[in-house]
Amino acid sequence: MTTTAATNVASPIVSGTTPAPTSSSSGSSLNPTTNTTLAGNFQTFLTLLTTQLQNQNPLDPLDTNQFTQQLVQFASVEQQLKTNDQLTTLVSLQKTAQSTQALGFVGKNAMVDGSTTTMTNSSANWILGVKTNSTVNISIANSTGQTVFTGSYPVNAGDGQAFAWDGKGNDGTQWPDGKYTLTAQAADGSGNSVAVSTEIVGVVSSVDLTQSPPLLSINGKNYTVDQIKGIAG
After folding, report:
1. Is position 60 within any domain?
2. Are 109 and 202 members of one domain?
3. Average pLDDT over the chain, rounded to whole?
4. Which H/E stretch holds residue 67?
5. How far apart are the C-alpha atoms of 209 and 36, rounded to whole Å?
6. Spatial CA neighbour of 223 closest among 113, 144, 143
7. Side-chain half-sphere of 220: how many Cα atoms within 13 Å?
8. Residue range of the domain that includes 72
9. Confidence at residue 64, expressed as pLDDT on a 0 to 100 scale
10. What is the pLDDT at residue 140?
11. Better-predicted residue by pLDDT, 59 or 199
12. CA angle 120-123-124, nearest 5°?
């Protein structure tokens, strides 16, 4: 059995895999329909104001305060239209920057939260973290949910601790390469349960730029750029 649990240095880990967002919203101020409506109201307001000035009674002209308020409204709507245009430009630039950043990850080993990894050449690796010195009970299952290995290991407090599995079951069976999921439970010296964080390292195989934000494919799962904990190489 060459299953090992070693200490390594890596970035802090948060357990689990955060589901990738399925949609995004830029806010109502950038909605094309809203912007069009606002522009239409602006033109209608301008037409009404002009007509009002042209047809006012010379003996009873428009009240100065009322006219000033209308001018303020006029300026406010005009400014809102300009702000919407500027925000639209900023959002477009941000999307371009996100796409450029995402493409830079393709082909690199990225570290993300998760418990399922791909064993290649009889080698599967995870990164564990515990808050206190603990005994960690590990169970590894294959893609069908069958448990193929179990073991208990003393682990010192800290994040970024590597756990490597050579693909051999407890009975010595060599399991084939493929996807395997690690489940870890830990307890301290008093038997109290201790939370265990898990992280995996996988190659970014592709990027879906049709999504916002772009989605990176790692070990068959999708992640956003902000879910990348680090780049291993």
Report:
1. yes
2. yes
3. 77
4. helix 64-103
5. 28
6. 113
7. 8
8. 28-103
9. 62
10. 97
11. 199
12. 90
pLDDT of amino acid 62 = 63
Residue where one domain finishes, among candidates 70, 103, 136: 103
Place of tokens 């407890």: 170
> For residue 17, is it within any domain?
no
Taking residues 61-73, what's their average pLDDT?
67
The reply to whether 115 and 210 lie within a common domain is: yes
154 strand-pairing partners: 135
**140, β-bridge pairs:** 149, 182
Measure the N-to-C terminal CA separation of the chain; round to a whole number of Å.
Answer: 28
> Pick the residue with more confidence: 76 or 61?
76
Last residue of a domain, one of 68, 87, 103: 103
202 within domain boundaries: yes
CATH number for the domain harbouring residue 205: 2.60.40.4070
The mean pLDDT value for 30-43 works out to 56
Tokens of 64: 């100065």
Q: What is the pLDDT of residues 83-97, one digit of tens each?
A: 777 777 776 666 666
How far apart are alpha carbons 10 and 38 in whole angstroms? 51
Residue 118 near residue 72, CB atoms below 8 Å: no
Q: How far apart are CA 121 and CA 45, in angstroms?
A: 71
Question: Same domain, yes or no, for 140 and 201?
Answer: yes
Whether residue 145 sits in one domain with residue 97: no
Task: Give the integer Cα–Cα distance in Å for 158 and 167.
Answer: 25
Rounded Cα distance between 190 and 120, Å, is 38
